[in-house]
Every structure is written in C-alpha cells, then in structure tokens.
Fold this sequence. Notes:
Distance between the termini of chain A: 13 Å
Order of helices and strands of chain A: EHEEHEHEHEHEHEHHHHEHEEEEH
Helix content of chain A: 25-40%
CATH class of the largest domain in chain A: Alpha Beta
CATH topology of the largest domain in chain A: Rossmann fold
Oligomer: homodimer
Largest sheet of chain A: 7 strands, mixed
Number of strands of chain A: 13
Strand content of chain A: 15-25%
CATH architecture of the largest domain in chain A: 3-Layer(aba) Sandwich
CATH superfamily of the largest domain in chain A: NAD(P)-binding Rossmann-like Domain
Largest interface: A-B, 42 and 43 residues
Mean pLDDT of chain A: 95
Shape of chain A: globular
Number of domains of chain A: 2
Number of helices of chain A: 12
Amino acid sequence: MRLMSSYGLVKIVVIGFGNVGRGLAKTIALKNNELTKKLNITVKVVGVVDSKGMALKKDGFTGIELLKLLEQPRSSVGSCEVYGRNYVDIEELYGEVQPDIHVELTPANYDTGEPGLSNIRRALNYGLNVVTANKSPLVKAFNELTALAQVRNVKFKYTGTVMGATPFLRALKWMKAHRVEYLRGILNSTSNYILTLMHEKILSIEDAVKEAQLIGLAESNPSLDIDGLDAAAKLVIISNTLGHSIRFENVERSSLRGIDLRDIMIAIKNGYVYKQVSTLDLVKKRASVNVERIPVNDVLAGVKGAMNAVHIVTDTGEYFFQGKGGGGVETAHTVLNDVLEIALGD
Amino acid sequence: MRLMSSYGLVKIVVIGFGNVGRGLAKTIALKNNELTKKLNITVKVVGVVDSKGMALKKDGFTGIELLKLLEQPRSSVGSCEVYGRNYVDIEELYGEVQPDIHVELTPANYDTGEPGLSNIRRALNYGLNVVTANKSPLVKAFNELTALAQVRNVKFKYTGTVMGATPFLRALKWMKAHRVEYLRGILNSTSNYILTLMHEKILSIEDAVKEAQLIGLAESNPSLDIDGLDAAAKLVIISNTLGHSIRFENVERSSLRGIDLRDIMIAIKNGYVYKQVSTLDLVKKRASVNVERIPVNDVLAGVKGAMNAVHIVTDTGEYFFQGKGGGGVETAHTVLNDVLEIALGD
C-alpha cells in the first residue's frame, strides 16, 4: 500500500465541490483539531476541483481558508484568490500537491459513469488511494475498478454510495464469513420523503415533489429518485460488494409516478402504506426497486421521511440497520470515515 | 504489521474450546472451501487449546479433523489421537506451529480478567495479531492491550465482544469522524430472553431462568446476565472504543431479581414492558445497566427474545442496529470476520 506522506498527516484532493464536497470541506475545517487530538492524525485538503477550475495549496488549506472556499459561488473555485486556477488539470494537481488520497465526489451519471469513472481510473493508475460517494463509476465498472485498486496495491473505499450517512456498507463488507441470502430495504431518501408526505399530508405526487424540491431534497429532475434509478444503483453496488455481479439494466423497477391520491387513501383506510422497496434476492438472483403496498406493521413501514433502513437475511442470522440516507454533511462524515480508515490502516 | 505466513493462507490458534471455539472450528470446517473460492484465502487451524490440554498440527487440521475434534468431550482436546498433548504450553505451541493470529475465546472472568488477559498480553508480546470474543481482558486492561498492539504493530480485534453476532462494534469503530454522544440499547441476550418469557408467558423470574437454562441460554449461575455485569462490560468496551475511559465499577446497575410477577402484570395492563436497558451518556459521562419500565411503542420494546439492538445518537445523525446477540456459531462468524479482515488487510 502507498504510505501516507508522513506519519500523522494525510493529504487529500477533493474532486467535485457540490453538496458532499462542500460538506467535507466544512467538516474538516470545523473538526480537524478534535480529530487530531483524538486520533493523532491531521487531514489536509491540498486541492479542490469543480467542473470549471481548481484551487490548490501544497501544504494544505487552513480551516479558515476552507471556509472561505465555501463562500465562492458554485463552479467557481478556480476564481478564488491566490490558490485558484481557471482550468482543470488533475495530473498537474497530483504533480504539484502529491496527495495520499483522491476523494471523488462528482455527480452520478448512469449513462456514461463520467466524469467519475475516468477520474477514479486515473487516480488508481497514478497509485493513489481513492474514496468515493459517486455511485455511477461503480455501477459501470465495479470489477474493473476494484481489480485495478488491487493490482496497484491501493485502497478503494465507497461506503458513502449506499445509505450515505449510515455505516451499512462498511459492516456488510466486513461480513465475509456470512452468506447473505436476501436483503430488503428503503435505500432512497428522496422518494421515501415524498411518499411520507403523500401519506401524512394527503398530497398528490406532484405537490409532494414540489415540497421536497423546496427544501432542497429533490432535484429539479426527480427521475433518478422517483423512478428508482438511484436505489437500483445501490443494489448493484451491494450485490457486487457481496461478490455477485448484476447489471444495472437487469434491476426491475417501477415508478412512484404510478401512485395517485386515491391509491393513498385506500391504502391508509386498509392499514397499508406505499413504500419504494429495494429487494435483492441472491438465491434467486433477482433485484428490484418497486413501489409496494406494505402493511403498517411491516418493519419498513415505520421508516419515515429521509430515513433509510435495510433488513438482511444471512445463513447465520438476520440484521437490521437504520439511519439517515444522505445529506451533504452526513455523507461527508462517511467519506471522512473512509479517509481516516485508510490513513490509520484500521 | 506482521505478514501472513504466505499469500492466501492464514494460520490461527484457537485458545478456549467452549461454545464459540467449537462454533469456530465447525464454521471453518464447513465453510473453508467456499471462503477460499470467494476470497482467495484459506484459514488453517494449526492449534486448539482448552483448559487441560492442546492439539496441534503444523500444516493445519483438515475439515474432517476439525469435526473429529468436536467429538471430544469438553476439556479433553489434549486426549485426541496423534495431535493431542495433555498439558497446556502456549509458547511451545507458538514455536511449533508459527501462527499468524491468536484467537482468544476463553471464558470471561471480571475479577481477574484471567486467563484471557495473560494470554492476550503474551500473544501481542510475541508479535501475533489477536482476535477475541472474551470481554473481561478488555474490561480490565483496554488501554494497555490496545497500546501494546500498536507498539508491536499487530492487529487486535474484538468485534465479537459486543452484540456477538452483529457488526455493531465494527461499524462504530469506523465512525471516527462522528462524535457519538449517547447510546441506548439491549446488549444482553439472556436477560432479554428471560424478560420476554416473563411477559409473554407470565412467568416468575425463577421459572423463566429455568427455561432459559434448559435451552442452554442461561448459565447455571445466571448472575452475569441478570445482574447486568455482562451488559456493563459491553458498555465499558464501547466507551473505551470511542476514546472515553470508564471503569467497570462505575457502571450503575440494577438486577432483574427485583421484578416480580405483580410488576409484570401491572406493566402489561398499562402498556409497558420491563427491559434491561444499557445506557451510555458520553456528554454527562454516565453509564448504566438498569431494569426499566418502557412504553410498548419504545423502539427497544419490540426487541424480543435473544435479539439485541442499539440506538446511537451522534452529532451527525442517529442510527439503529439490530441483530442476534450471541450464540456459538453466530459469534464464531464474527470472530472469523475479524480473522479474515486481518488476513485480507481490508
């Protein structure tokens, strides 16, 4: 494995400066002293890249400098004073700042996996450890990327891609002696939030989507969430992590768009709720993300709002995990936990 | 870190051959082919030690030999044919079989921590990685043992000490960027099983204990479980893992023995249940294992029988984990997951 630059110090570059990237910069700015004290390790951000430019500082941005970077408007980190460059050249960045870990936080693109896929490939080939919360490169090329990390003898961690803020994937990865047979959960926060609104306020899907957009939870195009693509990507990552290759295209899906107010009222009357339920059956080799009507006493029925939960059945017992699915600062903590795990070798 | 004997092979010695030790031998015998295929790694048991003797084989017991060792009566592994020796000399064992990992599965003793404490100390000083499911050495000497492992540059893993079969402690250890503030859970399977029986069958504590003893869940002396010592030990391990030293003696405790049939009936009538609730408050620096009357809609009220669950509150979200607390084969899987994590460096 690539050694850290020096004992007690880990240098990272952050590629992608949206919600999670900004959450990470903020978390490091605010928590670095506490972490250094607790763990004897200091995380230094030596470079930040967005779609149009980059900012770099060889000996690492101070906490105050990181907070100042957050004041830059979106996609203009390259315009910041002293450290900004109005172009993106990641190899140039590597050469100048010599990072230990490449943190890939670009947005997901399920058609091409880009720009994350090329970025991660380049980082691994360069001999860098990689941490990512971007699902699409893993959906496109799980086996290629994990094999490349192994050949290059570097770490490749992606805990934040599933249940963003909850250590489910970390625990699952550790469960190597267990044979996981079946898994069922709520893996997409936005669609769960929308469905919760529809039931609790008796809203149409259009109105519920609007409300989720207002608080910044749903995108202007909510398709990735409500049509099940995001959850399907998570099932692909979970399945591959367990050693079972499945293709994104083969995950059966149904959309929230099929549910109207009348369905909701009838369900409530009869003691049911609609949920976007993700299911992975490794015995029958089937994966699906379906909008299902489940009884109110189902363990998943009580998982409300932006919460995620997953129930897994193994050859040696059943387990249940629940926690917040996403959020910039929450997912940033997951990314930072992966970074610290690499740095501490633990 | 100490390197594995050779690529794709990990040699372990198993110290303690009770429920978990036997569960481990059985799991390795039955699953080794599957694990080798899935992970490119073979776990070889090269030595087994019980209180009176040991059995060793330099190139590792075959699956059939492991299953034969399980046919030996308790505490007589030293009497087995060919490989048995009717004395215990762990240094002699190390010298002859050159293990990579010492697996410590002796029973807990909260007065002295022995024999686990001396065994783990000796193993770490010998330069061996250690995996344990025995709580008492950690309760007695958490800081000493973790510091020793660091100085010797070996791994020391103990996931199986808390919620035996559930990867809670593994996930918690990873959550380094989070500040855990509060934790509340059901950490002792036996007392939870006994309380569940008392509520569901309206049994006195004496009768419920007898029933739990019949199925092998409660010990002949059930004090460790029903007086809260086992759960208190788990809180000490959790707290220390999070960097907060607390002493076993300072965990406030109350016993199940205080609950009689009349309490149970009144509780049921009023919509309550009694649970042994373990609480760790890292802000107020308080730890307790108390028998509490909680409302039936409390998240812990639904955790029944031998199940464990824990709810944690951090500065960045709340999480809930549920799974089986113990069981020989289940905890053996946890131990094996720790072994595989060390072997794969992952």
